[in-house]
Predict the structure.
Amino acid sequence: MKLSILDQAPISLGQTPQDALFASMRLAQAGEASGYTRYWIAEHHDLFGLACSSPEVMLGYIGAHTSTIRLGCGAVLLPHYKPYKVAEQYNMLATLFPKRIDIGIGRAPGGSAEATNALSDNFLQQVYKMPASVDELLHFIYNDFPAGHEFASLKASPVPIIPPSPWLLGTSRKSAQLAAEKGLSYTFGQFMSDNNGPEIIQEYLDNFAPRKKEDYPQVIVTVSAICAETTEKAEEIALSSFVWGLQRQKGEGEGGIPSIAEAKEYICNENSKDVYERLHRKMIIGDPKTVKKKLINSKNMYKADEIMIVTITYSPEDKIRSYELIANEVFG
């Protein structure tokens, strides 16, 4: 089973953004050492507690400190940008780090309405144009505009020997339909979705239309997981993630992910049992054997080729240890 990492670059209480970004680099290094297939970092704009607004910059830094793990963004929020600039950025990364670069493509705003307005004009109009923007991005990546097109002679330089691999990310039937229509690999964000993931992915598989003869459908499912030596310890570590989720829903938590002690105190003082249980159901928590079993169940349920794991903890060391324990159990 292939495993990968999705990193949201969260900031813990008492950390600086620099601390969080350095922790992301260490996580990528640990993932590489443990045998993870790829490391993707998310893009967010002016969302408290999340440090990475410019994945293409961070990927250059991480690429220089790793050597084999695939690197990508989860996701480039395409409605904010011109496809040509995105192609240039990721061609640049693919030139620097051959055979290692992915482009995860998404349509979400990734921040507040104010951040969206500051980033781009007519965001909703650009969302409606998403299929055409994806086409344009793919033409720039593969350098295959049809003859006579206004961009036929334009290259997204530097042109790498091996182009970056595009993936479409989403949580809905609409994203799966677009991935199938464009012949793209698809990543379903189970950790963010209340939709029927297996049905959505089956629709993608049934309707996949290859862009080139050698194209075939590929599926990554992204799940939230926390692993520790014992299930009791994993549950305790997970409290910080639960409480931070509750705080963010209420517009609190500006200071970052709370410590375990602070999370315990918050739970005792808050009547949030229903929300706590809902968040708990969406996560995989346990000792290595328990987590492995649940990851295999998820892989089979979703017909996934790969499982991508997002882990939110207060301590960066607990996060790295979680990924290491999972890898040791799954890879032997």
Remarks:
- The chain is about 50% helix and 15% strand.
- The chain has a mean pLDDT of 95.
- The chain has one domain: 2-230+283-331.
- The first strand starts at residue 2 and ends at 7.
